[in-house]
Amino acid sequence: MTTIKNAWDTKHYRFNDLGAYDLTPASFLVDKVPFFKSKGVKRVLDAGCGQGRNCAYLLDQEFQIYGVDSSSSALLLCERLMDSKCRPSRDLSQPSRYHLYNYRLEELDHIFAPDSLDAVVSVTVLTHILDAEKVIHQFYRALKVGGYVLADFANPKDSTYRYISKGERIGNNAFLEEGTTVVYRNKREVKSLFPRDKWEILELSPVKFTEPPHPGSRPFEHEHCSYAMLARKK
Ligand SMILES: C[S@@+](CC[C@H](N)C(=O)[O-])C[C@H]1O[C@@H](n2cnc3c(N)ncnc32)[C@H](O)[C@@H]1O
User: Fold this and answer.
1) 156-194 pLDDT, tens digit each
2) For 48, which DSSP code?
3) Does the C-beta of 71 come closer than 6 Å to ligand 1?
4) Is the pTM of this model over 0.90?
5) What is the domain-level CATH number for residue 87?
6) What atom in ligand 1 is closest to the CA of residue 50?
7) 3-state secondary structure of 143
8) Number of domains, the chain
9) Which domain holds residue 114?
10) Which residues of 120-130 are buried (b: 16+ CB within 10 A; e: fewer)?
11) Kind and range of the H or E element at 206?
12) Does any ligand 1 atom lie closer than 6 A to the CB of residue 214?
C-alpha cells in the first residue's frame, strides 16, 4: 500500500477507541442535506470517509451510504460507528444501508459501476490529494448524469497554511505534513478541476468551518478556510 495510507493509519487514526474522535459532521455538508433531499438524492458516496462522522450523519438522514477510505484503521472505526447506529433496528431481511470499502479513491472504478451514484461528498480529503484531477474523474465516472459532487479544497488563507507551508515543499502550494500531503488551491485552480464540458458548477464559495481536535494529528481545534464546490455532472 502507499505511504499515504501508512501515514494516515499511524498518525491520524492511531487510537482505536471511537470515543477519542469528535463525531460532529462538517457544517457545510449539513447545510447541503436539504438540497440533496429536494433533488431526490439517495445513494451517496462519502469519499475519504475517515472514522465516519459524515457517513453516520448521512445514515441518520436516511441516505444509502457508501464509504471509501484508503486507511484500514479509519474504516475499522467507521464500521464500528455505523454498526452501532444500525444494530438496534437491524432487519437482516433488508439490504444493508451502508457499505464500506478499503480502497484508494483513484481506484473507485474497482467498486462502482459507471453512472451508479446520486452524489459524492468528500470532506477535507481532496486537500490531501495532489492529483485531485484523477480522483474527480473517478467521481465523474461513478455519478449518474445529473449527480452531484460536494467537496472542499483548502485555500492559502487556511489557518494551517502558516505552519504547514514551513515544512517540506512538494509542489505549488503543496507540502508534506508528517507524511501526508496538504495542497492549498486558489479559486481558479479549484474551478479548473471541473471542466465545463463535464460539470455544471452550481456553487463555488469560500467557507470557514471549525474542525475539532484530531487526536492523532492536529490535536487542537483549527479553522479551515476552503472553497466548497457543488457541481452537477452534465
Ligand atoms: C482529514 S481526513 C477526513 C476524514 C473525513 N472525511 C472527515 O471529514 O472526518 C482525510 C481522509 O482521507 C483519506 N484519504 C487520503 N487520501 C486518500 C486516497 N487517495 N484514497 C482514499 N482515501 C484517502 C484518509 O485516509 C483520511 O481518512
Assistant:
1) 999 999 999 999 999 999 999 989 999 999 999 999 999
2) T
3) yes
4) yes
5) 3.40.50.150
6) 27
7) strand
8) 1
9) 3-233
10) bbbbbbbbbbe
11) strand 199-211
12) no
